[in-house]
């Protein structure tokens, strides 16, 4: 299975993990804040309740009773560790009872409350009251008690969050894997259309969007397969039904030639046989064009081809013929240029380009073939060039250049077939403007289609 | 040669029968693929000619079954499907040669001879001798009357193919297919020109011709003896 470089499902799973992390962090922060506030509030309330009890005791039992109770309470260490702190002092702030050393910055006259320091950086909620003209009391409870609670909340969040994120990741991975597999199945069917039937069989009619996509893809691919099969059948039938009778006709001509007719008759018979050959070649070229067009963009059945060796071999083959036609054929081939292709068809393509050049460039001319990595194959000549209004038409079927008049040989399919073969390989065959100040002939370029 | 011919069109069969009886070969004709398979399994043949589009089993399937059945007789497919992709299908499918209808009678005869000769093993020898010519296949060197012939790599390929088919007609199509791997006829006279160059190298400094042009069909290597 070929994996796409960037899977949408990996990204979706990643986004889900990130989102859950952000949500968890937000929830943790809210919990921290509200738990902290609640604990502070509870400490303040405890201080007030404690203070109210002590004021009552003072009112009913007097200072001695109050001092005794304060000492009792200091001695009693509560289980939760939130020990209260007291300071009973005279009006100058000097300690009478309690465990606090120094009178805090709280005004007992207005029963001021606030956070005070109780030594070694510890803080406490406290409230002070004026009990009598020379008696004041402060009650305090630690304000730092929320720290361990908040720490355990953080620990709980971290542990729970880790499990949660792991679950999200696992679930995301599982879901993504399932979806990716289903999408991959559709992609595979497009890459290997002959297996489209299995995709259709696997699709469910009551499924989700992906099932619908799979079903639609399958039916489209089945239709393409049917069309390709019908095209192949038809072209084989046409070839068979035309070639067979032509074969009989040719055989009759061969027999007539064997009966040693008059030279003039023999010449006509030979011409008739040549005509049959041309019909067959035209038919073949038309079917080849159709086949190349039918396989356009289809990379199946293509294998690596050493284009450098292929083009060099054909140039060498044509060198003698070019020389006999009075032309200079030069070739500059970059070594090791490879392409995924059909070697037979590529030979046909290059051959057609050289046939075309040799046919249309007059004696004394020059044809230059260059191959560069890419691949970029250029067949340029210094012949008469091509009329601007014919630039696209020369690639049409049955179009022949006017330069050579009626007697021009060939089927008029050479460039059309060359272009169809180029397109089947994902290449474009174009006629480029000749270089300004250059020889000014035709410049054919075969390069990757843009 | 004893040839098995499988063809469901009696008119084509009669035509091929005429050609091959004129060349002195024995032709056994079968009109159906199944009968041909049966016969090919029982009797020895030098070459088998197969049509592709038969009524019952197609020629490519027959080729595969024969090869699977261990029958290595050279097979030539003679078909109305003549595009180069059709040829590739046939050759990749185990056939030894492929000829499209309509064809030159001489082409068919030449190819059958070449197939038969190749099957008889002359091709595999390291040195091929014919008349005054020597072809050292491994060393890729050529001699005429013990004089070294300076051939380019492609010219050597051409010469070697002529040596493998020495004394027989070699057609343009055969040369294009075997030497240049082309299954179509280029519009330019490339074969004739390249043969002309080879001919000059084979004949330069000798009195007797080396290559004979057979009008309308191809070439034949002569023994070149003084």
3D architecture notes:
The complex is a heterodimer of chains A (450) and B (226). By secondary structure, chain A is α+β, with helices and mostly antiparallel strands. Chain A has three domains: 142 residues, Beta-Lactamase, CATH 3.30.450; 72 residues; 146 residues, Heat Shock Protein 90. Helix content of chain A is 56%, strand content 16%. In chain A, a hairpin with a 5-residue loop joins strand 3 and strand 4. In chain A, helix 1 runs antiparallel to helix 2, helix 6 runs parallel beside helix 7 and helix 7 packs antiparallel against helix 8. Chain A is rod-shaped. The two termini of chain A are 28 Å apart. Chain B has 226 residues and is α/β, with parallel strands linked by helices. Chain B has two domains: 118 residues, Response regulator (Rossmann fold, 3-Layer(aba) Sandwich); 100 residues, Orthogonal Bundle (Arc Repressor Mutant, subunit A). Helices cover 41% and strands 22% of the residues of chain B. Chain B has a five-stranded parallel beta sheet with strand order 2-1-3-4-5, sandwiched between helices. Chain B has a four-stranded antiparallel beta sheet with strand order 6-7-8-9, with helices on one face. Chain B has a three-stranded antiparallel beta sheet with strand order 10-12-11. In chain B, strand 4, helix 4 and strand 5 form a beta-alpha-beta unit. The interface between A and B is large, with 40 and 34 residues.
Most extensive interface, residues per chain?
Answer: A-B, 40 and 34 residues
Q: Which percent band covers the strand fraction of chain A?
A: 15-25%
* Helical residue percent band of chain A: 55-70%
> Approximately what portion of the residues of chain B adopt beta-strand conformation?
15-25%
Low-confidence sequence ranges of chain A: none
Characterize the largest beta sheet of chain A: strand count, sense, and whether it forms a barrel.
5 strands, antiparallel
Order of H and E elements of chain B: EHEHEHEHEHEEEEHEHHEE
- Euclidean distance between termini CA atoms of chain A: 28 Å
E-strand count of chain B = 12
């Amino acid at each position: 299975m070929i994996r796409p470089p960037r899977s949408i499902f990996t990204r979706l799973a990643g986004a889900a993990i990130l989102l859950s992390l952000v949500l968890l962090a937000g929830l943790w922060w809210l919990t921290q804040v509200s738990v902290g506030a609640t604990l502070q509030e509870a400490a303040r309330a405890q201080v007030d309740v404690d203070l109210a009890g002590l004021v009552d005791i003072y009112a009913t039992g007097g200072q001695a009773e109050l001092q005794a109770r304060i000492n009792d309470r200091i001695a009693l260490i509560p289980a939760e560790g939130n020990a209260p702190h007291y300071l009973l002092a005279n009006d100058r702030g000097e300690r009478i009872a309690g465990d606090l050393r120094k009178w805090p910055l709280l005004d007992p006259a207005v029963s001021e409350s606030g956070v005070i320091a109780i030594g070694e950086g510890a803080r406490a909620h406290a409230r002070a009251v004026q009990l009598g003209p020379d008696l004041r009391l402060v009650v305090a409870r630690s304000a730092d008690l929320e720290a361990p609670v908040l720490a355990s909340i953080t620990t709980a969040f971290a542990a729970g969050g880790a499990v949660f994120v792991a679950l999200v990741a696992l679930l995301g991975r599982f879901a993504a894997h399932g979806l990716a597999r289903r999408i991959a199945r559709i992609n595979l069917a497009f890459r290997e259309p002959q297996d489209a039937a299995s995709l259709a069989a696997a699709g469910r009619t009551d499924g989700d969007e992906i099932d619908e996509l799979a079903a639609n893809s399958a039916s489209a691919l089945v239709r393409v397969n049917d069309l390709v099969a019908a095209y192949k059948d038809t072209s084989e039938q046409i070839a068979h039904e035309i070639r067979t009778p032509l074969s009989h006709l040719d055989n009759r001509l061969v027999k007539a030639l064997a009966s040693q007719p008059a030279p003039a008759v023999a010449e006509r018979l030979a011409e008739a046989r040549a005509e049959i050959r041309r019909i067959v070649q035209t038919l073949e070229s038309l079917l080849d064009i159709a086949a190349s067009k039918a396989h356009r963009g289809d990379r199946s059945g293509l294998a690596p081809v050493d284009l450098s060796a292929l083009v060099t071999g054909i140039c060498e083959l044509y060198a003698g013929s070019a020389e006999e036609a009075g032309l200079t054929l030069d070739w500059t081939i970059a070594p090791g240029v490879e392409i995924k292709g059909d070697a037979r068809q590529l030979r046909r393509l290059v051959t057609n380009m050289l046939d075309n050049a040799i046919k249309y460039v007059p004696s004394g001319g020059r044809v230059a073939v260059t191959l560069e990595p890419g691949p970029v194959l250029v067949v340029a000549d210094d012949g008469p060039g091509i009329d601007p209004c014919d630039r696209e038409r020369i690639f049409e079927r049955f179009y022949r250049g006017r330069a050579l008049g009626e007697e021009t040989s060939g089927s008029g399919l050479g460039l059309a077939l060359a272009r169809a073969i180029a397109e089947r390989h994902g290449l474009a065959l174009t006629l480029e403007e000749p270089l300004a100040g250059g020889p000014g002939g035709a410049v054919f370029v075969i390069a990757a289609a843009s | 040669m004893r040839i098995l011919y499988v063809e469901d069109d009696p008119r084509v069969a009669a035509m091929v029968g005429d050609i091959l009886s004129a060349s002195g070969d024995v032709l056994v004709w079968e009109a159906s693929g199944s009968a041909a398979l049966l016969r090919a399994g029982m009797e020895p043949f030098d070459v088998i000619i197969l049509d592709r589009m038969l009524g019952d089993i197609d020629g490519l399937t027959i080729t595969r079954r024969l090869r699977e059945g261990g029958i290595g007789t050279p097979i030539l497919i003679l078909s109305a499907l003549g595009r180069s992709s059709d040829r590739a299908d046939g050759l990749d499918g185990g056939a030894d040669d492929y000829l499209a209808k309509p064809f030159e009678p001489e082409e068919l005869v030449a190819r059958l001879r070449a197939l038969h000769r190749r099957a008889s093993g002359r091709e595999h020898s390291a040195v091929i001798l014919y008349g005054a010519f020597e072809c050292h296949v491994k060393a890729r060197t050529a001699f005429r009357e013990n004089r070294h012939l300076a051939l380019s790599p492609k010219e050597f390929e051409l010469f070697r193919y002529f040596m493998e088919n020495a004394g027989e007609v070699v057609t343009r199509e055969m040369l294009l297919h075997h030497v240049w791997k082309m299954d179509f006829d280029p519009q330019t006279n490339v074969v004739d020109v390249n043969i002309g160059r080879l001919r000059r190298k084979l004949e330069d400094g000798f009195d007797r011709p080396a290559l004979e042009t057979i009008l309308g069909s191809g070439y034949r290597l002569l023994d070149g003896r003084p």
